[in-house]
From TrEMBL:
Biased composition (Pro residues): 37-49
Protein name, UniProt field: DUF3048 domain-containing protein
Species for this entry: Streptomyces smaragdinus
SUPFAM superfamilies: YerB-like
InterPro entries in the cross-refs: DUF3048_C (IPR035328), DUF3048_N (IPR021416), YerB-like_sf (IPR023158)
DUF3048 domain residues: 60-189, 215-327
Pfam families to which the protein is assigned, alphabetical: DUF3048 (PF11258), DUF3048_C (PF17479)
Region annotated Disordered, chain positions: 29-61
Length: 333
């Protein structure tokens, strides 16, 4: 298991890079996020950037589901720790771009990121889990009271700066990382790993052979290509392969393209862009990609406190292979 990251003097370099960051990518970074990790003890050795750190995950301790809001803009790639997530949700945010919500239950990486800010959609989405921890960089000011009142343990970089550190290989705001050991040290009493609501098992009958699926947003594009050798769907974002910091691919075992209502939200950024709200309560259609095939499905979530259920057109429980699941929220047709 990799040790906890320690401080480096490279935080000074990060400060110098701030001036060159594109303005639109700064919109949701917390104004007072720390730019260097805490000073190491005299015996500590320097810590490499997360891009050079190990990607090996360890079995999770009994503890909470950890939900981390992840930056997936081009400067934030490659990612760290996402291979250990049980589920990755893809949500539309301001200006047609997307963000990830990575949910960890069965495994935890030592470090995960880059981390970005919470959205209104996250609060409803996470109500289906029992007392989750939400790790995020910050939030729009008017949203913060709603986060405080939500049934979750909020651990932002604003309120828990010691849990986070800045990497040295990319500019602010795309270099904020979370130490998961520090989270669990703060929340040892939370629930044990949760049932995330996905039934595992062999593929249902039927399905249509499909080895590639593309999903487009106004300012983001995803492609999922089936690898018969890896038995995984290889993820591309904006025409480039999605990878981890060690060069290995982002490769879920299954992908759900879930049709939902995406409407104008109650909040926006400082430049006047509305943050759309993705309604994950209700019913609708979905397409499940697994084993090189596409399956028609239905989803249902009666209340925000319920897990999302997926069924076949005949009403049987939809099954998923073992491994990571991506849920991509798209507008209802």
């Amino acid at each position: 298991m990799a040790g906890k990251p320690k401080a480096t003097a490279a935080g000074l370099v990060v400060t110098a890079l701030i001036a060159v960051v594109v303005v639109i990518q700064l919109r949701d970074d917390p104004p007072n996020a720390r730019t260097t990790p805490p000073a190491p003890s005299p015996s500590a050795s320097p810590t490499p950037s997360p891009s050079a750190s190990t990607q090996q995950a360890r079995p999770a301790r009994p503890g909470p589901v950890l939900a981390v809001k992840i930056d997936n803009a081009a400067p934030a790639r490659p990612h760290t720790g996402l291979d250990a997530a049980d589920v990755i949700y893809v949500e539309r945010v301001e200006a047609g771009i997307t963000r990830f919500m990575a949910v960890f239950s069965s495994r935890l990486p030592d470090v995960v990121g880059p981390v970005r800010s919470a959205r209104e959609t996250d609060l409803e989405l996470l109500k289906q889990f029992d007392d989750p921890v939400l790790a995020y960089s910050g939030a729009q000011g008017k949203l913060k009271p709603f986060i405080r009142d939500a049934p979750l343990r909020a651990m932002s970089a604003d309120d828990f700066p010691g849990m986070y550190f800045r990497g040295t290989d990319r500019p602010v705001p795309h270099n904020l990382y979370l130490r998961t050991d520090d989270v669990l040290d703060k929340a040892p009493e939370l629930a044990t790993p949760q049932n995330l609501g996905f039934e595992r098992g062999p593929a249902p009958a039927g399905g249509t052979a499909q080895t590639s699926r593309e999903v487009r947003f106004p300012a983001a594009r995803y492609r999922f290509d089936w690898s018969a050798t890896r038995l995984r769907w290889l993820v591309s974002m904006d025409g480039r392969p999605g990878t981890l910091a060690d060069g290995s691919p982002l490769a879920p075992a299954s992908v759900i393209v879930q049709e939902v209502d995406i409407r104008k939200g109650s909040f926006g950024d400082r430049w006047g862009n509305n943050s759309p709200f993705t309604d994950t309560v209700g019913t609708g259609k979905a397409t499940v990609l697994r084993d090189g095939k596409a399956y028609d499905a239905r989803w249902s979530r009666e209340t925000a406190g319920d897990l999302t259920e997926f069924t076949t057109p005949s009403g049987e429980t939809m099954t998923f292979p073992e491994g990571q699941i991506w849920v991509v929220y798209v507008p209802k047709a």
